[in-house]
Amino acid sequence: MTAFQDLMTFQRDTEALGQIAGRLGWDQETMMPEGAARQRGEEMAAIEGVLHARRTDPKVGAWLAAAEAPDAAGARMLELIARAYGRNAAVPARLAAEIARVTSVAQGTWAEARARNEVGHFLPTLETVVALMREKGQALAAAGYGAGDPYDALLDDYEPEATADGIAAIFDRMRPRLVALRAAILGAAYQPAKLAGTFPQDGQLALARDLASAFGYDWNRGRLDLAVHPFSSGSGNDARITTRVVESDPFNCLYSTIHEVGHAAYELAVDPAYLFTPLGQGVSMGVHESQSRIYENQLGRSAAFTGWIYGRMRDRFGDFGIGSADAFYGSVNRVQSGFIRTEADEVHYNLHIMLRFALERDLFGGRLEVADLEEAWNARFLQDFGVAVDRPAHGLLQDVHWSVGLFGYFPTYSLGNIYAGCLHKALRRDVPDLDAALARGEARPATDWLGQKVQHFGGLYRPAEVIERACGAAPTEGPLLDYLEEKYRALYRL
Amino acid sequence: MTAFQDLMTFQRDTEALGQIAGRLGWDQETMMPEGAARQRGEEMAAIEGVLHARRTDPKVGAWLAAAEAPDAAGARMLELIARAYGRNAAVPARLAAEIARVTSVAQGTWAEARARNEVGHFLPTLETVVALMREKGQALAAAGYGAGDPYDALLDDYEPEATADGIAAIFDRMRPRLVALRAAILGAAYQPAKLAGTFPQDGQLALARDLASAFGYDWNRGRLDLAVHPFSSGSGNDARITTRVVESDPFNCLYSTIHEVGHAAYELAVDPAYLFTPLGQGVSMGVHESQSRIYENQLGRSAAFTGWIYGRMRDRFGDFGIGSADAFYGSVNRVQSGFIRTEADEVHYNLHIMLRFALERDLFGGRLEVADLEEAWNARFLQDFGVAVDRPAHGLLQDVHWSVGLFGYFPTYSLGNIYAGCLHKALRRDVPDLDAALARGEARPATDWLGQKVQHFGGLYRPAEVIERACGAAPTEGPLLDYLEEKYRALYRL
Questions:
Q1: What's the whole-model pTM score?
Q2: A5 Cβ partners below 8 Å, 6+ apart?
Q3: Cβ-Cβ contacts under 8 Å for A355 (sequence gap 6 or more)
Q4: DSSP string of A389-415, one letter each residue
Q5: For residue B385, is pLDDT > 80?
């Protein structure tokens, strides 16, 4: 056995154990009896401990030093293992343990603060989390990650090779066009009708299954269950999805399902040869989100596909007060001002992200302190959304991310939208008759294209590279903005 | 930290990882998409590898040598860890790997042979498995396990401190009384009616839930799902059960459920202080089975409790052709000749076990070879059951156990019945008005007694010791036989 083979044999078990940890997470959110929560915490800690020990095992360092890759895929595997190993080594064990300890409690404190609608209850904790994450970013930067920039070094965990400067440049170009589009829509004379009524859970779930099938979800390698917050979980041949049901708002269930099918489809389409290797999963949060978003928005919310859903909704629920497929398309894509990121429409969503990204950058660039964060949030929100935040739970306290140390994570949501815009443009070029299929409830021409152009490669190419290879051009915000402006100007008769 | 504390800290994670492996097994049988099977095999192998490495880690040996127990529970913990460590050390790694390799394939070969009804397809594989297990038994015996006897050394894995000689003496006393009781019942003039009709799945499952609740199953720390073969899984605060539904035979679902509630109740009642220690689970297969059997049979199939079930069945299914609670009691407890152990009634069940035990002992005592096994099986079956085996799938090929190397496992089923007999006698003595509660669908006076007398102690006492402490006398077959004879003579009007 060569060092490369030894390393890959070791890595294989590490990847398999990582899958197990993921499966436990799925169980916890879907199946686990409530009374098992504390016990599960210890079980998760035990397997995370095993994983951490393997990922930082000095044997890995020795193998990496000696290993020679047999081919390009092997070289990329070594690169990814070395990156993970190097990042782990760069963070002092004391700091890693302290972050784990603090964030495990901080999430609870955040939830309490949100429930009480009381920023002050959360701020001291957030101060500590930010201080620790600044220290982590500096430690990583000192080791050369993020080209020496602490925020970029954190971002690198979610979107490798992206930089805050690059993202800021894109966002600066996007923001005025989105703000203008938003204002035009909200001021438009024509406003589509809002869906009203009650849609029983069984019918919603049956329809969600139909939609997942329409998007080619492989039920032989997945399943759909209920969860409080929809998510997808697992790789290789076991990628499960979840959804939730609000009886007054079936779009919540249906579009969550399509979104998670996008994530799961990515995992299920990765080259089987990469199973249990560092290439065996989606390459970044941004590329992952591009798949979920193009499934959910550009395809799932298209006029062609909503026409098909409209028929299925009428089959399932009878007359629900929307008289035509056109009106239904309007109700699906209705733009509405709101405080909450996770409830935002396609036009508002990226404005929510830009706000968070700007504040994060300022926090890590020394231009903003935690004590001033709420004021900064509210000022920016008023500026972009034209509405004052009415309560902290609708503002600074709305997202869990910062409480658990996820800095550098938010921008990947918008990168996903931007990548989806690029992919959608290329897809329409390559599959010109796509709408005819979508109108029949067949998304396969699109999902096949995405499978071959993006999903199949798993972690083989870098994030921006996989998008560029699929589209023939480096990713930019242009296609997304063109798509949004064209779609919403037509819909709102602007 | 003392060596004892170091060892227990290490053990805690090992136990937690063991729980995770168990949860994966549950997922595999209940939730896992079919297409994930191969991948799951690798994931299971990865965590089993981690567990094996921990259980044989030389650090454990060093801690064991240096550890001093702070109290009796600590001493028992050390004893159990030392036993597991010593047994692992006694089996050469080459042999352990070979057994794992061969048995992982052998189960498939057995299933093929059973489907084809062809003993010859399985025998070469069984030859290999028996040879390997003989070698394992000899290696363990050479290290002093089973007091130097290879079969006892294997039995020790499932029912520590039991001996084949001791079990044989019990079985020799049981067999003539069971054979005579069986003959009398099958020749009786009165025969209870057999349940007929179709009982829809939803109603069966709803009733199964009611029965689990009647037996005090803690839904906050468990759940009920469907599986091909019912089982229970998990310890501490997460003990899940499964059942199956045959629409023509609701007793299958209902009594499988009560049986598994018995197993799960044991795990859920163990002293919480023992969680993630070697005392944190049921002490042996036999004692575990005593809980499932007393729940299922002595309590669940009692005249008092079946009277309550009868009312619930009529509420749920309307008139199903059994006109009285008495007749229903008869149909639940109907004795019928049959080839299959898992379908056997209380009278026949132990005869099935005695047959297997006798053959196993002869195989490991050098008095029987695999080539002659089918003939020996069929001869013994004819002798005890008065019927000739009509096909191998109803004889030698019916059970999976031997294909996966489970020798010494079968007798624990009957030990469970014997222990249940002893516990039931003591329970009736201590709770004289139990039938009044059972007739109201309340099993709690019985389950509380079992919880306090048996389940609470987990692995603290040795198997026979925990039964003796609960009953005030060492376990014997007498109470079980007295119970069976009394119950069935009355029922069959003998």
A1: 0.94
A2: none
A3: A377, A380, A381, A384
A4: --SGGGTTTS-SGGGGT--S-HHHHHH
A5: yes
Alpha carbon of A344: minimum distance to chain B alpha carbons (Å): 33
Say yes or no for a CB contact (<8 Å) between B39 and A19: yes
Residue A50 contacts B where some CB pair is shorter than 8 Å: yes
Active site residues of A: 260
Token pair for residue B185? 């019942």
Q: Please state, in angstroms and as integers, the Cα–Cα distance from residue B75 to each residue in A121, A399, B162, B279, following that order.
A: 47, 49, 21, 11
Instruction: For residue A287, give how far its alpha carbon lies from the nearest alpha carbon of chain B (Å).
Output: 24
- CA triplet A37, A38, A42: central angle to 5 degrees? 115
Stretch 196-255 of chain B: residues touching chain A, C-beta under 8 Å: 218-223, 236-238, 240
For A118-154, the pLDDT digits (tens) are 999 999 999 999 999 999 999 999 999 999 999 999 9
Tokens for B88? 């692992």
Please give the Cα distance from A35 to A44 (Å, whole number): 15
Predicted-complex ipTM score:
0.93
Query: Is A46's Cβ below 8 Å from some Cβ in B?
Result: yes
| B337 vs B335: CA distance, rounded Å | 7
Type of residue at B245? V
Q: Which residues pair with A243 in a beta bridge?
A: A226
Which helix (H) or strand (E) is A355 found in, with range?
Answer: helix A346-364
Backbone angles phi, psi at A492, to 5 degrees: -95, 10
Closest Cβ opposite residue A20 in set B16, B43, B218: B43
**Which residue in this structure is represented by tokens 């954190």?**
A154
Closest residue on chain B to A26 (Cα): B27
Strand, helix or coil at A242?
A: strand
Tens digit of each residue's pLDDT (9 = 90 or more) over A218-266: 999 999 999 999 999 999 999 999 999 999 999 999 999 999 999 999 9
Domains and CATH numbers, chain B: 3-155 (no CATH), 160-494 (1.10.1370.30)
Per-residue pLDDT reduced to its tens digit, A17-31: 999 999 999 999 999
The answer, for B147 touching chain A at a CB cutoff of 8 Å, is: no
Give the range with max mean pLDDT: A98-107, B90-99, B286-295: B286-295
What is the predicted pLDDT for the residue at B104? 84
